[in-house]
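Researcher: Last one for today. Full complex below.
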Amino acid sequence: MKITGNVYKFGDDVDTDLIIPARYLNTSEPAELAKHCMEDADPTFASRVSDGDIIVGGKNFGCGSSREHAPIAIKAAGVACVVARSFARIFYRNAFNMGLAILECEAADRFRTGDTLSVDFDTGAIVHLDTGETFSTRPIPPFMQELVKSGGLMAQVKKR
Amino acid sequence: MGMTITEKILAAHAGLDAVSPGDLINARVDVALGNDITAPIAIQKFRESGAERVYDKDRVILVPDHFVPNKDIASAMQARTLREFAREQELTYFFDAGEMGVEHSLLPEKGLVLPGDLVIGADSHTCTYGGLGAFSTGVGSTDLAAAMVTGEVWLKVPETIRFVYTGDLQPWVEGKDLILYTIGDIGVDGALYRSMEFTGPVIDALGMAGRLTMANMAIEAGGKNGIIAPDAVTESFVSARAVRPYTPCFSDPDAVYARVIEYDVSRIEPQVAFPHLPENTRSISEVGQVVIDQAVIGSCTNGRIEDMRSAAAVLKGRKAAKGVRLIVIPTTPKVYRSAVEEGLFQIFLDAGAIIGPPTCGPCLGGHMGILAKGERAVATTNRNFVGRMGHPESEVYLANPAVAAASAVLGRIGGPGEL
Ligand code: SF4
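Model: Here's the assembly. Have a good evening.
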């Protein structure tokens, strides 16, 4: 699968309180959470982001809380995938468990807000459409690929 | 080849003789934990899976603690979801009403998490139980739902960083300062995907409260778990309360570590983490003039009876500075009761403190102490992210209970030595 989208760039150590502040955790309704996605990092993000856009972060994206509300908010905001230099571990497994595409890319710091990227989930290749440059991402372990293919962790549990 | 304590616990729970870093395993869980924020999603997924009963009603534990006593209607609905599920599934351990407390203080206190256990919780500070010698890690709601059905979790065996603490502790330096110092040294992703094993003579001499505090903040360095080998201190804490038998594990002498980091603690002063990351640490003597509006003493990091005693020792015969809101939150009914019986409440009240019921409260900016725009708090909690305790333009400084108490008296961040 291939997607093309506009970049929204954030920095290093984007924490789950930035992705979805705790004051909104009295609900788990995706549409409600999406309204406040990234609010404390960029209050205009939720109103500007459109379907298929891409969030780019630096190192340690999603650090902090285990709240699945974070990947839910990002997904419900229409974001097609998150690209970062590295991800915090609970965010990483949550994203796979619930089917939000995330990619680790060493060159993530070179992308800027407003850039257009095309991302090929099968090969992991990212093409910067404004410059034509191609970047590689860390391959997704086979176990995680299986997880995504089977529709997430609960689908696997159901099968068992 | 030898194994670390973490590898041994993982191998034992995966039914394997040995595991190595990088292995993906399916492991049996001893306890699966959820709270009022994360369990509602897990319960929904549990229902969607078609499962009817949780795998073991003694092992699935629910604790509404974040937004209780219910702070608004939406939170009340979430707490009700847990209550109804607990009743329907006849969960043995559901802590509500007068039994409620902050999950990571409550479970060790009740003897529900034990040395050698494998514990997962849909809360990032589940790593706290590593202080007892358990492998314990935070997961998401979907992982919790899967574990509620199957009693299992998938895990990647982490590499381990071994931390060795030697030397003599300076006055007022506690477990909190050791872990803040460590995070300040290695950074908020310094142990990303890795296990943090805390060792050395200083750890051997550390009480259970300090050990739980250190393991609690492993996640703040990106760690998968923090762990301390069980010993006589652990045994005396656990033996009186364990609800079931347990099998302690220990690292082999020839265990393989990704890194070994040594600290001479004689050089470590009480630490303060400046906004907006726990790695922004400074020694108390280098803090400068930081005027505060609020001081919070509580949370799963530092809300145990030892922390109450430490704060009370500083506050005795003193008053919080005019205009500083000193908020004390004992984290369980037992801590609360002990604080009353030991006369600590008298000291807190004389100091002008507000004493809250056991809850997470302001720690995650839920309720009972939210900061306004531009306000500053010193807190014994574990995170000082943007907006963590309220307005995105407020600030949180992390410190130990004695420093938080002294700061309340001074009206600015400072140590007990300045009083
Ligand atoms: S006290 Fe704070 S860190 Fe601990 S579980 Fe509650 S909200 Fe989380």
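The first strand of chain B starts at residue 24 and ends at 28. Chain B touches chain A through 50 residues (CB under 8 Å).
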